[in-house]
Amino acid sequence: MDVAIVPEYSNLLDNNFVTWDGEYAEDRSYDVDRGGYTELKNVFEQNGHTLNTIDLVNINKIDACIFVDSDMNWIKQVLECDNDPDMIYIMREPPCYRSFNSTSNLSRWSTVFDHILTWNDNLSQNYVNFSSYNWPQYLPQNIEEGYSFDDCKLLVNISSRKHSSHPDELYSAREDIIEFFSETHPEEFELYGKWWTSPPRIIDDILLEKIFLPNKYPNIYEGSIPISEKTDLYQKFKFALCFENQTEIDGWITEKIFDCYRARIVPIYWGANNVSEYLPSESYIDYRNFIGPSDLYNYISSMDEEEYSEYIVAGQNFLRDRPEDFSSDKFAEDVYSAVTSIDNSCSKWVPADIQSYIDYMGEADALVNNYDEIGRLEYISRFGKIIANRPSTVINHPVSYFACKSLVPFLPDIRIGSGWR
User: Which of the residues 98, 337, 376, 407 has an alpha carbon 20 to 30 A from that of 38?
Assistant: First the structure.
């Protein structure tokens, strides 16, 4: 069985997505996933199959193709293959970041994909051809002790500044806490990350009339740090804001809380509704238990070292036990089982509106992936036609931003794939 895999970003092609050196580098794209995908490649090969990124294969000879989040250019090409390979979709990002991954949308795409893997427990438990998986995590403990309890500052946030119009997004909740500390307790809080002093980067921000935002938090903002320094910085603090990008969904647990465990810092968590089914509740502070930022502050600022240590020990014990649900081995097992057990008795069915979406968005994704080869003027011309024909389809896609930036060069650069646009 010859299997291709399509990563979300082009810098993960050439088998970079399925090759991992065993060391977790937080500043590498998808490095939290690479251990799992490398193990997946090993499992395929151990069972006499192959797994390579799609740029290294002849798609007309593959038996199956795995898509990690949606790349409509490759989806379009694989659908057009005469050999009709099985198509497997791995949902990675939440709907607030990638609207394609909403429950209503993915349930309709189940006739296009032969199987869909998702961390969303509601989807995996209630829809045909869906199954569950968890993000593979880097689980080794950090054996180095951090600063003493009395020497640590109270609270830190390390995240990029983002916005979303999704009703369950947590970007704004995170910023509510940041604003509270900036106004009331700036000496006990530090803020790190990208874009806190930059203009917004996405169409949603422009629609919300947030085109130019000054640095709102000069008294707490310490700049952007290399993500590789995240653990060292965490060890200087007692608590870390650890909000996922979205709530009101089950199973959405990313590397954020695991980074806290390894750094021996207590996470203040908000994200998956059912987080306690996956992680020990005594290892994190559940923000849902507080009325607001002031209530949270009163709790963490009055916590003594004994109570604090109980959280730390619970997190360390969890890592020490190497939780199987989040291991690379379990991830590889779940994906391999899904790919090799597809029932081919049913043929794919692509509804007309989805086919139209694939056609337009496939062309848009192809433009983004080949921006440097196409050239700016040709890019503007071709993308302008896509917007004119299907504005409702592309308005929330990153390529919309690139088109706007091509026309309005002073818009800030953003990173996608291996390059800045």
Answer: 98
Burial letters 365-378, b for 16+ CB under 10 A, else e: bbbbbebeebeeee
* Predicted confidence (pLDDT) at residue 252 exceeds the cutoff of 70: yes
More confident residue, 322 or 95: 95
Say if 46 falls within a structural domain.
yes
| DSSP letters spanning 15-69 | TGGG---S---TTSTTHHHHHHHHHHHHHHHHTT-EEEEGGGS-GGG-SEEEEES
pLDDT on residue 25: 61
Quick check: 120 and 127 in contact, CB under 8 A? no
CA dist 131 and 119 (Å) reads 8
Q: Give dist(CA 326, CA 292) in Å, integer.
A: 31
Structure tokens at 368: 């983004």
DSSP symbol at 166: -
Closest to 370 (Cα-Cα) out of 360, 355, 358, 382: 382
Structural domain of residue 184, as residue ranges? 149-321
Q: Assess if residue 15 is contained within a domain.
A: yes
Write down the residue that tokens 């979205």 correspond to. Answer: 246
Q: Quick one: 168 and 75 in the same domain?
A: no
Range scoring the smallest mean pLDDT among 42-46, 223-227, 345-349, 412-416: 412-416
Report if residue 143 sits inside a domain: no
* Mean per-residue pLDDT, 244-260: 94
Q: What is the CATH number of the domain that holds 110?
A: 3.40.50
Residue type for 299, please? Y
Distance (Å, whole) CA 310 – CA 283: 8
pTM: 0.87
Between 359 and 170, whose confidence is greater? 170
pLDDT of residue 412: 42
